[in-house]
Hints:
CATH class of the largest domain in chain B: Alpha Beta
Shape of chain B: globular
Number of strands of chain A: 3
Distance between the termini of chain A: 60 Å
Strand order of the largest sheet of chain A: 2-3
Structural class of chain B: alpha+beta
Largest sheet of chain B: 5 strands, antiparallel
Radius of gyration of chain B: 24 Å
Helix content of chain B: 40-55%
Strand content of chain A: 5-15%
Radius of gyration of chain A: 22 Å
Structural class of chain A: mainly alpha
Largest interface: A-B, 42 and 52 residues
Number of helices of chain A: 2
Number of strands of chain B: 10
Number of domains of chain A: 2
CATH topology of the largest domain in chain B: Alpha-Beta Plaits
Strand content of chain B: 15-25%
Largest sheet of chain A: 2 strands, antiparallel
Order of helices and strands of chain A: EHEEH
Oligomer: heterodimer
Amino acid sequence: MTSPFESVMADAELEGLEESDLSLLETLDHVLNSGLVIAGEITISVADIDLIFVGLNVLVSSVEKAHEVLRDRERRAAMTTSSESEVSAREAQHEIE
Amino acid sequence: MKLYAYFVSDDPGVQVPESVTGVGGSAVRLMKAEDLLVGVSETDDAPVAITRDNVVAHERVVRSVFEQTTPLPFRFGNVVGEKQLRSYLHSHQEALQSRLLFLRDCVEMSVKVIWQTSDQVSAETEVVPVITDSYLDHAKGGVGVGFLMAKRQEILRDQMLANKATDIASWLKERLGGSIRKDQVSVRPRDKLVAAAAHLVARSDLERYRGELDKARAERPELHFLTSGPWPPYSFANIDLEFKTHFGVS
């Protein structure tokens, strides 16, 4: 997808997101939030759930969601690492016994 | 079988390249109605799913035309029967042509202003309600007074944030005013994204607009800016919405 961006502020608020992600978010913001409408309402669906109205604060929610996902992933990675260490320690202890 | 609509144009020379496919990989064709051309593809009756591929396909079709001329882009998800589409074009022909004329040779630029959490906090802490001895005496009297005082503080804080957000939006408009034909600004004082602006800019004024935006950004280093564009004029395309707003229906 060609990026329509001229510039992106890669600051604390937006770090962690690639330009392509921001470009997609901006595309969603434009294509879903505005434009000519023939009928009074448009039916679209997300994950098989039909929606009549789409009101998105795409950028902020997505940035927050992205941070949440990253934090969650880090937490899981930390937990996995510590569990692996515990298992290794227990196996080592078992071998000693 | 229904039609998925992408854009309206009054340029008789407009073409959608054959390599550009629409939503669901469908072929896009031009439908002539009145003096207008509409980019459409065939689809079934089911609602169009919001997927990355579908959204990108919609934008790809509109952008392929936007590179030649300035169309009126449809919002994602317009699925109608051919008869309904022709009826719409017939009944709205004048408004559509007038809007196309207004948007001719223009593009949309998007500016989102994000303030730091510390800006919000400072705005909130600036609100110090005047608590006099008399207030405290009353507060001792019951939870009702305490509740009202808390409510008052909340209202003052909201007002302060709204004022700050509106100031930012006004400042931006003042700085860019010379190079924009029209703007649409939404102010969201309680969000991190404090102001989202869509600017309609003549293609010939783009360089000037970019220069003014760069100067504005340099002027307010405490604010974060996310700029994108040029876009097809999505934010300035909806004639029905403007009609309703203008006449106070919505």
